[in-house]
Specification:
It is built from 5 helices and 6 strands. By secondary structure, the protein is α+β, with helices and mostly antiparallel strands. It has one domain: Gcn5-related N-acetyltransferase (GNAT) (Aminopeptidase), CATH 3.40.630.30.
């Protein structure tokens, strides 16, 4: 368990999520979905429609229980959820293991306080323990805050992806 904060700020704890955290994480997924939808052009919004049904507490609980995943939760000293991160281990045909950061979210009132960095560092540690040699993340091209977040933490652009509705 790692903490972040100063005397003025409450300390945040990051731990592996447990079954009791599924409801809090599902609620944060809804907040994240609303933000991500605001980033998308109108034609692309239907790409994200699956999210509404996808972030149920039951699905989150299955993700938490899956040994190929890392699901972390950040909590304030009172036990209130302030953010979460989900990642999974992918294995290539040649056996190369890579961690894929699927989702990272910090509640608005807790941003710019080191919570995201703490979640990301803990995820990297846990992915390395699972045998991963690298970590990757996909970011919307117009999400400049997320792009800067990852760039400033040592991530480099690798692939540019294009999408079109059919």
């Amino acid at each position: 368990m790692k903490s972040v904060g100063s005397k003025e700020k409450s300390k945040t704890r990051v731990t592996l999520a447990g079954p009791d955290d599924a409801i809090s994480i599902a609620r944060m997924c809804q907040e994240l979905r609303e933000y991500e939808l605001s980033l998308l052009p109108k034609w692309a919004k239907r790409i994200q429609e699956h999210w509404e049904k996808g972030a149920t507490p039951e699905k989150i609980a299955r993700m938490i229980a899956d040994p190929s995943r890392v699901v972390l939760i950040a909590k304030d000293p009172d036990g209130g959820a302030t953010g979460f991160l989900s990642a999974r281990v992918t294995v290539a045909q040649d056996g190369f293991k890579e961690g894929e950061i699927e989702t990272i979210f910090v509640k608005k009132d807790h941003r710019k306080k080191g919570v995201g960095t703490l979640l990301l560092k803990e995820a990297e540690t846990r992915l390395k323990e699972k045998g991963c040699s690298a970590a990757s993340v996909i970011v919307y091209s117009n999400n400049s805050k997320a792009r800067q977040f990852y760039l400033s933490r040592g991530y480099s652009p690798l692939i540019e992806s294009f999408k079109k509705n059919l």
